[in-house]
Amino acid sequence: MRSALLLALLAPACIAPSVVDSSGRAVESAAEELAWRDAQPQDFDGLFESTAIEGEAAAVIGRIYYHFSPAGSYTGAALVIGGAEPEFQTLSGRWTLGPDGLDLGDGVPVRARAAEGHLKLASDGGVVTLQRQVIE
Fold first, then answer.
1. Nearest CA among 127, 109, 129, 126 for reference residue 117
2. pLDDT tens track of the chain, all 136 residues?
3. Spatial distance between the Cα atoms of 48 and 83, rounded to a whole number of angstroms
4. Is 48 within 8 Å of 119 (Cβ atoms)?
5. CA-CA distance, 103 to 28, in Å (whole number)?
6. Which of 30, 32, 76, 116 is deepest in the core (most CB within 10 A)?
7. What is the spatial distance between Cα 53 and Cα 69, in angstroms, rounded to a whole number?
8. Residue 23, phi then psi, degrees to nearest 5
């Protein structure tokens, strides 16, 4: 359950896919133009906010936030819209990056790509694109 947030996003679900309006597609197009490469440990540093959520979970997850520490800890929150009232689901723990991808402590790595100020996490169930944010 340690990475329930990511698993809820990236695992297949029994919900209908949603259509993103043109403003959402514009953000996604900008991310597609970035020079993506395999993520390195130094890419996991700071606060990241989702700019695109693809896959079936996009119908119920409005936004995802992660804060990664270079020392290997993380915390995350997802705004879940599928219930009676929107609610944030949170998690925290330790992350590692290995040859199979990013592991948030549950032993199930996901593919991790990086570009300038961005991360892209993917599994067979979906993809989330995140952009680094400044904490003021």
1. 129
2. 344 445 445 443 333 334 444 444 444 556 668 999 999 999 999 999 999 999 987 888 999 999 999 999 999 999 999 888 999 999 999 999 999 999 999 999 999 999 999 999 998 778 999 999 998 8
3. 25
4. yes
5. 25
6. 76
7. 23
8. -65, -35
Burial class (CB in 10 A: 0-12, 13-18, 19+), 24: middle
The Cα–Cα gap between 54 and 130 comes to 12
What is the three-class DSSP state of 53? Answer: strand
In angstroms, the CA 134 to CA 116 distance is 14
At residue 109, what is the residue type? P
- Residues 79, 104, 20: CA angle, nearest 5 degrees: 35
